[in-house]
């Protein structure tokens, strides 16, 4: 008999993600102007990450469509997000551009805001290797 493993709650993941981002030296070095909010949509669960001057100020878990505004959305299946959460991701799960071109990831909304904050967003996605997938 094996013990069932239980994934952390959505709020526990959100707290771990915020902590990892707020203590990451790279984001803190590059994030002075990193201010935006974005939706991480993993089909089964969604999060709106709010960032002010390089610090995550709030992560809303499963917000309704009018609960929290966001600038852009990064949408993918739970399977794709789980691929990003692997310690050593497989090919095409290492970055949002690869996943957009070769997997089911979609970038929607104000893509200019995404591009203006691309280095920090990329680093936050890389932190999924540490905190795990959002689903």
UniProtKB/TrEMBL annotation:
<dbReference type="InterPro" id="IPR036527">
    <property type="entry name" value="SCP2_sterol-bd_dom_sf"/>
</dbReference>
<protein>
    <recommendedName>
        <fullName>SCP2 domain-containing protein</fullName>
    </recommendedName>
</protein>
């Amino acid at each position: 008999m094996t013990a069932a493993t239980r994934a952390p709650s959505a709020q526990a993941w959100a707290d771990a993600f915020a902590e990892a981002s707020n203590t990451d030296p790279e984001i803190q070095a590059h994030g002075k102007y990193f201010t935006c909010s974005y939706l991480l949509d993993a089909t089964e669960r969604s999060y709106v990450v709010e960032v002010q001057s390089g610090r995550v100020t709030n992560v809303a878990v499963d917000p309704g469509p009018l609960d929290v505004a966001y600038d852009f959305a990064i949408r993918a299946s739970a399977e794709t997000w789980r691929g990003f959460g692997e310690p050593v991701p497989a090919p095409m799960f290492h970055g949002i551009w690869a996943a957009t071109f070769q997997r089911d990831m979609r970038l929607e909304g104000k893509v200019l805001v995404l591009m203006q904050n691309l280095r920090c967003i990329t680093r936050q996605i890389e932190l999924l290797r540490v905190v795990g997938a959002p689903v």
